[in-house]
Design brief:
86% of the residues lie in helices and 0% in strands. The chain has nine helices and no strands. The longest helix is centred in the N-terminal third of the chain and has 19 residues.
Length: 173
Amino acid sequence: RIGLPVAHGLSARAGLCHVLVARGETAAAAGVAADLLAQARREDAVYMEQLALHFLADCPLIDGDWTQAEARYRRALAYAREAGLVGRMTDELLGVAMALAGAGRSADAVRLAAAARRKQAEIGKVPDAWWRGMQDHLIGGARARLADDEREATEREGATRGFDAVVDDLLAA
């Protein structure tokens, strides 16, 4: 069981990491996230470990390294699934979608985003302003690159496929 001072230390690091990511200070954010990951592993703090993996994926996304971002979000997604953190799974799926959007894989990005957003609506998860802004920029760009009928069909496919099936397919690939 994590003691109160340790929990506060982990939360403080996570908060600092979030601020650094939102400011685009990826080198500093990656260092803080790596420290958070190591401490969370020592303390067996599963949620914080998963959050550190997420921040480590945010850094290459911000820097435009789509391949690295996709790989890291997939890792964070697998960890979130193993830990049963459904809300975190939706964020990681959106991270993969944004990386795919950046790489020009618009239909795949829109499909994954639709599945994640539907699940978020089901569980009542609301993204923070920075995360929503990143989605609007990257996934919004992917949506704009698709013709209306293709966009509608792709979004419908993602929303109706089923969240677990979409995650299964993604992690199996």
